[in-house]
Amino acid sequence: MNEYRIRPKEKPIYVKADTVLKIGQRVEISLSGDTRAFASRLEDIQTNSLALARPLDVRNNSVTAAPGDIITCKVFGGSCYYKFSSIYQRMESDNIILWYVGRPDEVQKLQYRDFVRLKTTLPLTARPVNENGVKEDPCNANTIDISGGGLSFSLPRPLVVGTKVSIEIDNVPGIGLFDVMTTVVRSDEVEVKGTKVYHIGVRYINLNPNTQNKLVSFIFELQRQLLAKGLESKSP
To answer: What is the mean pLDDT of the chain?
Structure first.
């Protein structure tokens, strides 16, 4: 019997771009074929183009693109994220270096499962549940990433896919103690600084929608802080 319900596929929700895009918005940019996300900001809205602050990577190196490259942009619209694809046009310098991309007519409202996992380190307590339904001794760990639908963390031992794991993360804004039952969907062996560890990916089981909303809001705030830091570091 499945431990979680599979949601039916939902139709994408599109809204007029003019109702979402605002000058000064933080923008997360991804390039085609690249899994990384880069921080930017919407500097100007023109008839056929958007002007974006040239993005930097995590090492503050400038990101490059060629005319015709497809880019994906995500923006925070106050209560949820929206995304759109566009074509990179050119780069110009006007006090700051700007990327010009095509202006979209519509943007897509993202569902929870569409959110990119946020890489962040949060202390947690994990308690695997054995075959008899008994929680094992707690293991202290740190998140590798987190989303509205699941998270991953590192352990010194593997866990079998399908194993239930009780997860606790303390002091989550709006929630307090985030206490949720999960199921293991991935257990990958990796080597970190010469030591073998296991990256465990879990999916939340029957997470209360109200708690999920608060968790996603917390993730939004973390991501906005990271985007802000990236932009502040490249401001003249």
So the answer is: 84
